[in-house]
Specification:
The protein is α/β, with parallel strands linked by helices and about 325 residues long. The chain folds into two domains: about 160 residues, Rossmann fold (3-Layer(aba) Sandwich), CATH 3.40.50; about 110 residues, Zinc Finger, Delta Prime, domain 3 (Up-down Bundle), CATH 1.20.272. It has 14 helices and five strands. It has a five-stranded parallel sheet with strand order 2-3-4-1-5, with helices on one face. α4 packs parallel to α5 and α11 packs across α12. The chain starts with 9 loop residues before the first helix and ends in a 15-residue tail after the last helix. It binds zinc ion.
Length: about 325
């Protein structure tokens, strides 16, 4: 069974197919707001071009040798030009691509290049590619994506055929978000926060749900309704690093509340009211110390293996001491 494309990307896929059938351009830029799935569309199309036995709708079969290599990330005719660790794409990566394009395809009919965030090309890296993108070999195709086309070096930008990827109508977006389990009222709310981008709306909703659960747990610890040891063991059902990162976000937001600093846009609702109430009882100095400690712990956790249970227990206990007037906590908490 072939992978499904998001409904609002289907028309753009048809346009891309027409582009390749009529050989109108070999360098295409998919541009549009964040959270619409531009990279997903680019990969979907490139994979279908690489596929040895595409279906009647010219979509990848997901079964052939090419599709299996693609999924494994080892397709010899695919090149992904991307940045590493939030840095600009270096000129060395551009040079590597230029050399790679000099060879003929090995399995598929084309050599396929994907540049997921073309605006991240440094100036020298972009300049190095100008001639290559302008005169791609007949067997090559390059698809770039960007939600910030104004940041692309103009001389490079002018060499791409630009295709706009637009947000679906609100009704279509709500319909899709409902299929992902979101209630209509919540879907409308998150779509507004996400500027109409359904994927971003879903990501905000997921993030918010995780934050909400964690806020409930922090409240339970403060009130002595939850036991740090038991909660640490429950929390370990998830991976440690995401838990620490979410906690870090939440503690920073609580600290803003302590100092009466306006919340980040995501929290301007009833959830923020809950944080605000919780912050009234908190000691900002102790909370700052906990955030510093947590930041250090996150760096250590990334570098070496620690006893995750101990890490979380220490954090939860430190959190309980952030109250201005600690109440006597039960010796044996109830989870
Ligand atoms: Zn295939």
């Amino acid at each position: 069974m072939t992978a499904k494309l998001k409904p609002w990307l289907k028309t753009a896929f048809q346009s891309l197919k027409a582009l390749s059938q009529h050989r109108l351009s070999q360098a295409i830029l998919l541009q549009g707001p964040e959270g619409l799935g531009k990279e997903e569309l680019a990969v979907f199309w490139l994979k279908s071009l690489a596929c040895l036995t595409p279906n009647s709708e010219a979509q990848a079969c997901d079964l052939c040798h090419s599709c299996l290599l693609w999924v494994n990330g080892s397709h010899p005719d695919r090149f992904v030009l991307q940045e590493a660790a939030h840095k600009a794409i270096p000129i060395s990566a551009s040079r590597e691509l230029i050399i790679w394009l000099q060879s003929y395809p090995q399995i598929s009919s084309k050599r396929l290049v994907l540049i997921p965030k073309v605006h991240n090309l440094g100036i020298s890296a972009a300049n190095a590619l100008l001639k290559t993108i302008e005169e791609l070999p007949p067997y090559a195709l390059c698809v770039a994506c960007s939600d910030r086309p104004a940041m692309i070096v103009p001389t490079l930008l002018s060499r791409f055929f630009r295709m706009n990827i637009t947000s679906p109508s609100q009704n279509d977006a709500i319909f899709w978000l409902a299929s992902q389990g979101l209630q209509e009222v919540a879907a409308i709310d998150y779509l507004r926060l996400a500027g109409g981008s359904p994927l971003k709306a879903l990501s905000l909703a997921t993030e918010r749900s995780v934050l909400f659960n964690l806020a409930q747990q922090l409240n339970g610890l403060l009130n002595g309704e939850l036991c740090p040891v038991k909660l640490a063991s429950t929390s370990l059902k998830q991976e440690l690093m995401p838990v620490l990162h979410t906690l870090w976000l939440l503690l920073k937001e609580l600290l803003r509340c302590c100092y009466k600093i306006p919340p980040a846009s995501l929290y301007k609702d009833d959830f923020f009211d809950q944080l605000w109430l919780m912050s009234v009882d908190l000691n900002p100095q102790k909370l700052s110390c906990l955030i510093e400690d947590l930041t250090e712990k996150m760096a250590v956790v990334e570098a070496v293996a620690l006893n995750n249970q101990m890490v979380l227990e220490t954090i939860w206990i430190a959190w309980q001491t952030c109250r201005n007037s600690p109440r006597s906590l039960p010796l044996q908490g109830v989870s």
